Each structure stands twice: as C-alpha cells, then as structure tokens.
Amino acid sequence: MTSCNYEPANRYTFPCKPAANPKAIVTGGKGSKYRFTVLTERLLRYEWSEDGGFEDRVSTVAPFRWFDAPKYEVIDKKGHLEIITRYFHLVYDKKEFCSTGLAVKVGKDTWNYDGKSYGDLGGTARTLDGADGRIQLEPGILSRKAFAVLDDSKSMIFDENGWIATRRPGRKDGYLFAYHGDHKAAIKDFYRLSGRQPLLPRWALGNWFSRYHAYTTDEYLEVMNGFKEHEIPLNVAVIDMDWHKVDIPAKYGSGWTGYSWNRDLIPDPEGLLKELHSRGLKVTVNDHPADGIRAFEDQYKEVAKALHHDTSHEQPIRFDCCDKKFLDAYFDVLKLNLEKQGIDFWWIDWQQGTRSRIPGIDPLWVLNHYHYLTSYRNVKTLEQPLTFSRYAGAGSHRYPIGFSGDTVITWASLHFQPEFTATASNIGYGWWSHDIGGHFAGSRSNELTARWVQLGCFSPILRLHSEKSRWNSKEPWKYESEAYKVMKMYLCIRHRLIPFLYTMNVRAAFESEPIVQPMYWNHKDDAPAYTVPNQYYFGPDLIVAPITTPHSPTTLLGGVRAWLPPGRYVDMLNSGMIYDGGRYVHVHRPLKQIPLFAREGTILPLDITPGMYKNGSRRPRDIDILLVVGADAHFELVEEPYRGTASHEQAFVRIPITWKQKEGILTIGPEQQQGGSSGIAGIVPTYLRRWNVTLVGCRMDSTRLQTIRTKYRGVEAVAMEAVTQIRKCNALTGPAGGGQEMRVALGEDLQLSVVDISKRMHDMLYRCEMSYPLKEQVWQLVTQSNDPVKKRIQRLLDLNLPDALRDAVMEIWAADGRAVGNACGEEVWSTSEPCELTLGSSDFESEKAEDGYVLV
Q1: What pLDDT band is residue 715 in, cutting at 50, 70 and 90?
Q2: CB 3.0–4.6 Å: which of 371, 429, 474, 819 could bond 464 by disulfide?
Q3: pLDDT band at 649 (very low <50, low <70, confident <90, very high)
Q4: What distance in Å separates the CA atoms of residue 716 and residue 708, rounded to the nearest whole number?
Q5: Could you give the strand order of the β-sheet that contains 282-287, starting from the edge strand earlier in sequence?
Q6: CA atoms of 315 and 303, how far apart (whole Å)
Q7: Residues 196 and 506: beta-carbon distance below 8 Å
Q8: pLDDT tens across 342-378, in order?
Q9: Is 650 in a helix, a strand, or coil?
C-alpha cells in the first residue's frame, strides 16, 4: 500500500516488503528466542518468542520492514548483548523481555521494556462518539522524552496471499523510535515502515454535506438547490443510513444495516444519483454492515446464490469478516451492483467493537483494508481510490478518509477538536473528517456553529453534519444573518483554497508531511510550542489558532492565547494586524475571523475562477497569489497530470512561484512535468490562465497603490493591491504555452505595514460594552500619555479591567515593535496559564476596509 496510484490485480494484492534486511538483524542464531532489527540508526524493532519463531508477514502496522542496513555495533557475550548506534545504546540479558533485562538509553532518557506503547505527545482515538470535550488518546510515536515505543504484538497479520491471519500467542513485537525530539524524521521513518498516506482526489478537498435524516428525493434535491441558490459550493453529497430500508419486520431484527433502497423515500435511486452527478457531486452512502444480508434485502437471493446459502427458511447471511467467500460476495455482488447504480464510494460506519469469531481479527481493520483496495475498480470515477471510515489503529492512515464519530454539540467538543486533529499526525493519520458543527444533543448556538465551520475550513476535510432531529441541521441559511454570512464565507474560502489544499495533498503523500501539524513539529526546541495544543500549522507557512470559546460580553470578541515563533507575522484574515513573534499573544477577533497567521515570505494561491462557486473542483483557470512580503518566498503549485493518473511523484504538473524580497521580483513558472521537463507541447490544447497578485498587509505609497473593491457572492472584500501587480494578466500556462516564466516587478524591498495603535485601539474600544468614562481612561492611557510604557501598563492593571478587555488592549499595544509608543516586550497578560483561552464574538458588517479581508 503506497501513495502511488497502484492498481492491484485483485483486492488481495498490495505493495509490501515485510521481511527485514538480514544485514540489519541481530539474533542469537539457531534456536534463539530474541531478535533485534536495526532498521535505522534511530529505529529499532525488538522481538521475543518462547518458540523461537519470528514474524515476517505483513502486520497492519508494518508492511515495509526492508531498510538499508545502517551502521551499528554489537557487543555479544554470554548472557549479555549490547547494540550501539549514534542515537541509542541497547543492553539486554538475553532472557524473556522484562523491565530489568532490556533497556535502551537514548540521550539522557532510558526506556525499560514494559510491553506498552509510549508517546506522551499523544496520537488519536478510534472515535469521538459521545465525546463532550477531551477524551483519552492512544499514544503516537512522538514524545517529549528522547524515545517513543509502538507495541505491535497484537496487530492483525496478512499472509502471503493477502488474506487475514493471526499471530502466534505470547510473542512480543515492537518498535523503539529513538528520535530525541526530531519529530519530522520520526514520522518519515514511520511512513517508510508503515506506508505513506495515499493521494486524495481533488474533489475530496472541497465541501461535503451530510445529515442523518430520512430525506425524500425531492427533499434532498431541495437542500442541494439551497446551496446553489445561496451560491455555496459543494463537492460531496453524503446520504446517511435512511437511504435504505429502516422500518423492517421485527423478525429480521434491527434496521440499522441495509442494502435495499427505501423506495418510499427514493423511488428512483438511479435517477437521484444521476441528478447529483449532473450537479458536479460525488455521492457516498452510509453502511452499518454488522447484521449482514437478510431475507428482506433486494439482493438476498443473488448474494445467497454466490455463497450457496439456503434461502428456504430466510436465514440471514451473517456478516463474517473472517470468511473470504463472504467478503467476495459482499464486494463483488452486493456492493458492485449498488455501485453500478451510481454510488461512488462507501461510508463505513462500524461501531461494534474489535472482536470477530477469530480472536485478534478486528472487523474494522478488515473492512477498511479491503474496501480501500476494492475502490481501485472505481478510479475512473473517483480519480483515486478512497474509502470513508473510522480509525482502526496505527497504520490506518493508509485508508483515508477518517470519520471521527458523533460528538456532542458543545463548546467543550469544539475546544478539543483542533488538538485531536493535530495530534493524529503524531501517528501519521492526516485526513480526519469531523462532524462540523457537532452531531447531537447540546444546544443551538449560532456562534458555536459559525466557529466550528471556521475550524472546518482549516481542517483536513470539511463535512457539515448533524443528527436525526427536526431541530438540527447545518444548512447555513437556516442560521441567523450574522452566522449565516460567516458560515457561507468560510465554505467559499474553503473552495478557493483547493489549489493550495491539493498541493498539500501531494506533499502529504510524497513528502511525508500531513497538512495539519502540531506546533512542535517545526519548533521542537522551543518549549512554548508544546503549550499550545489547539494551535497548529496548516501547510508549511500558515498557523491557525482557532477560537473555541464563547465571546466576551465586554469586548464582543472571541479570544485565544497563541504562541508565535520568532519572526514577523500578518493575520491573513485581518491584515492590518502585524505581530512580532517569539512570544505568547492573546488574540481577539470578531465572529467573522479566525486567527490565521503567516510569516513574512509566504505565498498562498487561491482559485478565483469566475463561476468557481459551482460544485466540483476543476483545475483553476484564474489564480490569486496572496503574497506576504518582508522575506524571500517560494511556493510550488502542484496539479494533476494533463493525461493519465498521478501514479508517481514526477507525473504531476508543477508551477514554481518565487518572490525575491530585495529585488521585488515575483516569478511564476515555468510549468514543469515529467521529472523537470517543461513546455510539454502537444499533450493538451493551449489554454489561458489568468493570474492576480494581492500584497497582504503591505502598504505602498499612494502613487503606487489602488483600492480594488470586489464582490464575491454578496460578501464584500477590500484588498490593497499594487498598480504594478499582474492583475488579470493573460498568460499561456498550458504545455503549448512553451513553459515560459513570467517576471513581475512589484517594488524593491517591500515591507509589511506598521500597526496604527491609535486607530486599532479606537475601533476596538468603540465596540466594547462598557462605561464611556472607562473607555476614555483606557484610550488616554494607551495613546495620549507621555509616561514610560511600564508605568502606563501598571496604571492599566490598576484599573482592574475584565481579563478579556485587558488582553485585547495589550494585543494591539504590544503587537508591532515598530509602532510608535508600542508595548512590545513589556506586555502583561491576564494569566500565565499556557493554554488559557479568553472569551469572544462580533458584528459581521462592522469591519473596515483597511482590515484587508483578502480570502473571500
């Protein structure tokens, strides 16, 4: 199972190389009960078995154990073994593994065997079902200690024929990751061992709509019409379990499982699916497979015939993941017939635990593995193989996309989800799809739902979802005006982000870089990076600090405590706010903004093709390059091949975009494909691509700047753009365009604007619901006094302001060290608690043009 578009001969074949390099193996010879494999200088496999046998078959964790043998030293004496590399030192007494007999020293830390997995930075969990806030996470392979451990003693096995098998009981098998905080290197080697994340199709990166509701055909199409009328793009239509018969005779049991269309609701399923496809949508339907195929099903007799099952007594065909014949009929009769009707892929909703009739075989693993391999038969429709299911354990990243389960609709649930998404990357699991807005219970809250959609916009997958309730649905137009506008805005932003998201998708598959990464992945030696679990990198340059608590009744702003690494940053959604990094900052935003930071020298490409708010995700014709000046920048836009499939890394079309800060030159192209060749004439017709450049947070003198007002679907945006930019500049960028580059002079050594403390402070205080005299006191203290900053800060503290107000004042006052009268380096926040969040929300219409709201 690799990230390439490998097409198996059948669902029982997949890439693997499970036997280790003999040169990397250390054992006691014939009859030895221990075996160590030095996979790299930092990755060790350890095994012990009473019977002297060892596992060389594929496990769910480790399909690829063949590595080039690294350098290592062995000291082998009677009753004593040492293995030494540059990064670890193992000492072993050659007896059954125990805490006193097997130890590995990594730096200043020592691991003593205990048979458990260990990774204190967290991993992920099988499901968020019923979660109302934090849940316990399984460990990942990253740690604040110098080592992490992944026990593989009980994972499922695949035999040489690609069929499931079990391990011999009592054997011990695990992996020690001795990476000493080099988190990215650990993940890269984990992917080498376990297989990389596969590539997703472009359309999967857009908006999904789902609701647990018994829709009729007309009702479902009415919802789709609503998205069209409100000009909100969708890519995936999810139909929950009521697509099939639910109200069945009691003698057949529960209606939870079903494979027969409910024709009372959907009399012409082929017609519905055809209509959804005509609207540019892919379709997935829910499957709870636990109850098998029962006599009321339309395909009962057909499946029974394939299995030689006696139908005379209407006995059910039991779901049995351990029966290869059953799975063949399940996939090649039951599901294939439904796929021929127009179902594109399956939402596997297994909730029945980890047990099957064979101990050690987890049904979810079986379903995920074989569904994914079977989906190769639909690649002409899907573009890439795909399934949609729950997390089954380490190695599940090979079967995207993940469904995280049914969360409670509360602020506590929202507050935990950013951390849950980020730490999943610590076990390589990069493609979570959450129930955006929450699933059930809780209370209706416009603010909560809007904040959740903001998080969804900057999550791996954005899928609106809700429970089976007349009171609960996530269509944006069913919310109050402000929340509706915010939800619509971020669903449209998500669609505009798809060129960036697809590039990150390729990066994840081929460069072992999940799109969402905890802060400490890129700042492993900075202690504050470990104190902001809800903050994360979204791609290599964007930092997201979601607001996950209600607004302050004083400031009417939402707040979050963030940490900015060293450097200077602009908020992409509030480009008048520039921050000096290397410190904590309390960030306060109105409801329409989620803090999205970009360091100087960032390039972000967006789709601005006319009509882009239609469903589906085509190769963008018009692209807006958001450029954050102040430092050199580079971004390589990656797109699908013009012909064929994305079967290897060299097959993609790549367009380099480079900014030279000192010279002020932006270069686009040349377009490249096939291992670096450019100008691939004759493959496709010439087409015209239009490029636009927006300078984010950059103010140039008035003779070189113009204000551009544009309206995208009723949402007004104002961006300050250089006259010298290549706005709507026609350029041939297809292969027949000759692979030429474009060079545009925007101005030498352009810099980010300086924060206007007085103006920002006035705008913030004006909105606050507080006494007018106190507003004036704060205003005079910050902007009018000539006293030293330290003295003025103390006077501010003496006012005993609400925490949210004090922090909002300090955010503006201390943001930019270049601003006249700034308090940068002298700030005093309301709390020293590393993960404290202040409260907040706002008025959508009140944003001023100079806020530079450039993403919509």
Answers
A1: very low
A2: 474
A3: confident
A4: 11
A5: 345-348, 282-287, 236-239, 207-209, 462-464
A6: 13
A7: no
A8: 999 999 999 999 999 999 999 999 999 999 999 999 9
A9: helix
Q: Please, are residues 667 and 634 in contact by the beta-carbon 8 Å criterion?
A: no
pLDDT at 687: 60
Kindly report whether the global pTM for this prediction surpasses the value 0.90: yes
Residue that the structure tokens 């093709």 belong to = 609
Q: Report DSSP state, residue 294.
A: -
Extended strands (E) in 60-108 = 73-77, 80-84, 89-92, 102-106
Neighbours of 787 (CB within 10 A): 11
Lowest mean pLDDT among 104-113, 187-196, 446-455, 719-728: 719-728
Contact call for residues 375 and 388 (beta carbons, < 8 A): no
Q: Which long-range contacts (CB under 8 A, 24 or more apart) does 683-687 make?
A: 683/642, 683/643, 683/735, 684/642, 684/643, 684/734, 684/735, 684/736, 685/734, 685/736, 686/732, 686/734, 686/736, 686/737, 687/621, 687/732, 687/733, 687/734
Do 46 and 174 form a contact (C-beta atoms < 8 A)?
A: yes
Q: Which two tokens stand for residue 775?
A: 């507003």
Give the CA diameter of the chain. Answer: 95
- Strand, coil or helix: 765: helix
Beta strands in 279-392 (DSSP E): 282-287, 345-348
The dihedral through the CA atoms of 472, 275, 203, 9 has a sign that is positive
pLDDT digits (tens, 9 = 90+) for 437-454: 999 999 999 999 999 999
Which of 289, 299, 374 is CA-nearest to residue 333? 299
Side-chain half-sphere CA neighbours of 155 within 13 A: 24
Strands 705-712 and 688-695: unpaired
**pLDDT score of 845 more than 90:** no
Q: State the Rg of the chain over Cα.
A: 28
More confident residue, 99 or 849: 99
**What phi and psi, each to the nearest 5 degrees, are found at residue 513?**
-125, 95
Residue 268, token pair as written in the block: 């012409």
Structure tokens at 278: 């005509």
Residue 838 pLDDT: 29
Place of tokens 């507003």: 775
pLDDT band (50, 70, 90) for residue 168: very high
Going by C-alpha positions, the residue among 155, 118, 142, 138 that lies closest to residue 18 is: 155
Domain residue spans of the chain = 547-594+757-847, 602-745
> If one looks up domain 602-745 in CATH, what number appears?
2.60.40.1180
Which residue from 590, 589, 600 is spatially nearest to 565, judged by alpha carbons? Answer: 600
Percent of the chain whose predicted confidence (pLDDT) is above 70: 89
- Kindly state the average pLDDT of the residues 398-425: 98
Across the strands, what pairs with 82? 75, 91
Condensed to tens digits (0 to 9), the pLDDT of residues 764-815 reads: 999 999 999 999 999 999 999 999 999 999 999 999 999 999 999 999 999 9
Q: Residue 829 and residue 807: Cα distance in Å, rounded?
A: 6
User: What is the rounded CA–CA span in Å between residue 797 and residue 671?
Assistant: 56
Q: Which pair of structure tokens corresponds to residue 456? A: 């969804």
Planar angle of CA 512, 516, 522, nearest 5 degrees: 75
**Cis peptide, bond prior to residue 401, ω within 30 of zero:** yes
